[in-house]
Amino acid sequence: MSRPIAFYYGAGELDRLSRFDLVVLQADFYSRAELDLLRERGVRTLGYLSLTEDVGPAAPWHRPERNPDWGGAFVHVGDPRWVAHVVDQAVRAMDKGFHGLFLDTLNIEYDYPEDLPHLLLLIAAVREEANPGYLLANRGFGLLPELADLVDGVLFESFSARWVDTEHYAPWPDDVLETHAAVAERLLGLGLDLYALDYADDDELADFACRRAREFGMFCFVSDRVLSRI
Length: 230
Prior knowledge:
Layout: E1 3-8, H1 14-17, E2 20-25, H2 32-40, E3 44-50, E4 53-54, E5 62-66, E6 73-75, H3 80-96, E7 100-104, H4 116-130, E8 135-138, E9 153-157, E10 161-163, E11 169-171, H5 174-188, E12 193-199, H6 203-215, E13 219-223
Parallel strand pairs: 1-2, 2-3, 3-7, 7-8, 8-9, 9-12, 12-13
Antiparallel strand pairs: 4-6, 5-6, 10-11
Helix pairs in contact: 3-4
């Protein structure tokens, strides 16, 4: 029996990935032949796409600030050159054989709220130009309710558990869990596919995350900080 979803940012492992209905992969790590094989096995593949951070070389759309955890440069989302860059990445992923796209780095409502309208337009451009079979948004709660009209599903990353540093994992404190529960209740009313991605290094924490996700209608996948486990 297949499982609903997996996130894997390594390469290969086609047999293990074949156990899932939907898998999120790094677009550059898989060939067309590998994607075709997964499709033949009934697996839908989503290519990773960052919409507000850029890990590439210095570019005119970069802001001076960088993500302190991952090192990518924050961008001016509405810069037409960034829009063209992202749409090109999306089109190339779809041409390569991905079923759809996983839209990451959508949480800019606190740092760059002025870019939220630009981000909605960017998602709409990706939908129109790349024509993905499925769009899965990572969080993006500051874009609701408009986001619900543009995507097919929402992932609640770190819904119940988190990585504290590079080696330690823990459940969220009670007040954060309550806040996340309120957001999850809102998501339930949008008619979208709902998923949770949590981080754990032991069975007890993983079981807690999966049980809690089920309470809110979410399929849960548990991994490590760098998504190297299947």
